[in-house]
Amino acid sequence: MKVVTVCGMGFGTSLMLLMDIQSIAKNHGYEVQGEAVDLGSAKGKVCDFMVASSEISAELSDESVEVISINNLLDKDEIEAKVMPVIQKLHQRG
Amino acid sequence: MLTLTEGLIELDVKAKDAEDSIRKAGQLLVNEGLADQGYVDAMVKGFKEVGPYIVVAPNIAFPHARPELGAKEKGVSLIRLSQPVVFGHPTNDPITLVCALCGTDSTSHIQMLQALADILRDEEKLNVIMNTATSKEEILSII
Questions:
Q1: pLDDT tens-digit map of B5-36
Q2: Distance from CA of B58 to the nearest CA of A (A)
Q3: Is the distance from CB of A32 to CB of A21 less than 8 angstroms?
Q4: Which of A66, A83, B41, B104 has the fewest beta carbons under 10 Å from its own?
Q5: How many domains does chain B contain in total?
């Protein structure tokens, strides 16, 4: 399973988001591969789902995979509540 | 991992808008020799072109630019505005705390960013930084 996390510049917040998602997934017993990129490189990236801040996610509406939108990037509870159902759904689908 | 000094903190800063607040936070990086003026311009340009993606949480913005645009050392500055300003974010406006980030490559600042995030995730510490602190020393003492 692969996630692509996206921020405006691919410099900071996307990597922070990726590390949080991987650690949350691990706590639930899932291994998630990931890549942190800027908005320009995100379009068309091959992955199972994307995660971005709410501001950026609107720009990714054409993507073929699910795009999860996070309002508060510092809130691990919000990230967990939004990301885990998608990881579990993808896992069941195999 | 977070090296904040008095020179990198300013409380109750007056900013007339989002750009002004980014410039004022960036100026601290310049004053302390962590970035040059071009880096501050690049942060403002990024905000204008890409939008308020730098707003990471309610009332908090992390302006930054690409390392090659004038970052000299990794670091962060922290300013608290006397009056919040609007950045144009769908859910997290208005902004009171502006932390300008700079890093010299795309990975070295990540630990710094994580350390900063951990502090701002701590409700008690966040309350001190956002509301109750009346001096820079008070902020340095909880970091």
A1: 999 999 999 999 999 999 999 999 999 999 99
A2: 7
A3: yes
A4: A66
A5: 1
Q: What is the CATH number of the domain that holds A38?
A: 3.40.50.2300
Provide the residue range defining the domain that includes B100. 7-137
pLDDT band at B1 (very low <50, low <70, confident <90, very high): low
- ∠ CA A54-A59-A62, nearest 5°, is 120
Query: CA-CA distance, B6 to A80, in Å (whole number)?
Result: 35
Residues of B in Cβ contact (< 8 Å) with A76: 121
Residue in A7, A8, A72 nearest the CB of B57:
A72
In eight-state DSSP terms, residue B35 is B
B64 is catalytic: yes
Q: Count CA atoms closer than 13 A to A20's CA, side-chain side.
A: 30
- Give the closest residue to B119 by CA, choosing from B90, B97, B104: B97
**Domain tally, chain A:** 1
Is B62 within the bounds of a domain?
A: yes
pLDDT by residue (tens digit) across A79-94? 999 999 999 999 998 7
Q: For chain B, list residues whose CB is within 8 angstroms of any CB belonging to chain A.
A: 46, 50-58, 60, 62, 64-67, 89-92, 101, 103, 106-107, 109-110, 113-114, 117, 120-121
